[in-house]
Design goal:
This protein is α/β, with parallel strands linked by helices. It is 47% helix and 16% strand. The protein has a three-stranded parallel β-sheet with strand order 1-2-3. The radius of gyration is 16 Å and the shape is elongated. The two termini are 31 Å apart. The mean pLDDT is 91. This is protein acetyllysine N-acetyltransferase.
């Protein structure tokens, strides 16, 4: 029986792959007002701005690949019963081959 291993990941693990983080310097919130792109009020005020923001995020997510950290976590499954808990919705853990991913959206 394999020992259990739990990894907690967030935006930082995907930054190396080219996914912009929200709060770092030059992060997404520096170029966007959170209330304009991530609130019901922003949607009511200017749907075009909100759609452009999320379309850019989707385009970015489709253009990136897992980095070494994602790949190494997936390799650990050979030796451990690995669970990954993440807030990331970029699917890079899945693309790297990890199978037990708990995603808190």
């Amino acid at each position: 029986m394999k020992k259990k291993l739990v990894a907690l990941t967030g935006a930082g693990i995907s930054a190396e792959s080219g996914i912009a983080t929200f709060r770092d310097s030059n992060g997404l919130w520096e170029g966007h007002d959170v209330m304009e792109v991530a609130s019901p009020e922003g949607w009511k005020k200017n749907k075009k701005v909100v759609l452009e923001f999320y379309n850019q995020r989707r385009k970015q997510a489709l253009s990136v690949h897992p980095n070494l950290a994602h790949l190494e976590l997936a390799k650990l499954q050979e030796f451990f019963d690995v669970s990954i808990i993440t807030q990331n919705v970029d699917n890079l853990h899945e693309k790297a081959g990890s199978s037990n991913i708990i995603c808190k959206k």
